[in-house]
Design a protein that fits this description.
Immunoglobulin-like, 2 domains, 5-stranded antiparallel β-sheet, 13 strands, about 50% helix, disordered N terminus
Amino acid sequence: MEPKQTENSNTTIPNGWLDSLQQESWQLELLISGFSIFLLIGGWHPLSALEYDMMLMTYVSSSFSTLAFIYYVGRTAYLSLLVCLLVHVVLRGVWIAAIGLRSVSGDINFDGLNYKPRFTKRLRRKIGSFDAYIERLERYCSVAFTIAFLILFCFLSLVSWSLVAIVIQRIYIFAFDGQWAGTGILGGAGLASLLVVVFSVIYFIDFITLGWLKKLRWVNRPYYYLYVFMGWATLARFYRPLYYNLIDHRFGRRLALLLPVMIYLILVGVSVQQVKYGYFPVSARDGLVWQDSNNYDDEEGNEFDRAWRMTLSSKYASQSGWVEAFIPYVPVNDDPRLLLIDSTLDLSQYPGTKLNGAFTLGQRNNPNADYEQILAAFGQKARIYINDSLYSHITPLFHFHHQRQQPGVVYMIPVHDLPPGRHELMGRFRTIEADTLKWSEGRTIYFYK
């Protein structure tokens, strides 16, 4: 068998090898789809669990908002790939069923159905032969398999371009001695941020219109350079062969035009919720008409809602007469407050990325930190009231809450002298308004003795 030279390629492919592989590709498609679905379903729970860790990172510093954006884009791509592969497996199942039926009963015998001519004529026109139906299913299956990975690469391109956009803005800020004023992809970098937005919009319009800007005479030349740059910035080399091979014929172009709609429908589908209880309140202040389980660590609740609030270890005081209240340390909010409370505070740890393992790089701990001074500042950040009485005599201790995976301070509050019944614990916290510390109105939690 003589090898043949493919167009625009230095690779030699034996005659008939590619055709034979195409004929048997459905087996590879099913194998890859099934194995991928198994892995994706198994990995969904660990991936979702990372959302809480990502949220805690954004509490440490607003600069982690970019990582949060990347995480949510990646998770959306993950879910989109799973849905598309499930659709592909279902279509392949229908295709295999059609082939099995074809081998048993042959083509459709419209005359044997003995319908009236009007219905027979319509069925012949709309359905056609059974072989044509099988061929259409084969085409749909192969394209669905390709689109699954094309959607994945589109999301990865979004992540890549976001990182490049941040670098562009950082360079602009460094060159012109500016300041990073944002918390996400756009950093308030003036002209650089504007260029990022303009480049994104222009490239996106060309993508969803299947290359409309490449056909315009007056914009062809300037857009060429942007196209080359965006191709590098979005890692387009991984998906452009799939993209252009898909849109070079009518059927593929129709599917490509529906690609944004498909992504939108996937997002809508996973966002659907059913409201069941018409007279049950959505939320209310605890103790009035609603007892919020998120206020108590020993109850099942929403960890995302708990992460920023003061909680009690239980809604019941201990038998020995103590109530344990935990107040989380949220650096993005608390660090400015602590410095306003005591401007002489030294850091206990130096934030940032360090190496500590096979290699050690960067100093983590501050040996000169005064822990008692830092704890005193934390003690001035909050006030604890029991039944409207200020408990100024209690002092907190540093505590790492393993259930919430958060550092903070814990107050052990004596309630020995309180009578049996329901009692009100209220926490008031320092907030910053116009560079001045003020006390919040307070948050109430009820406990029982």
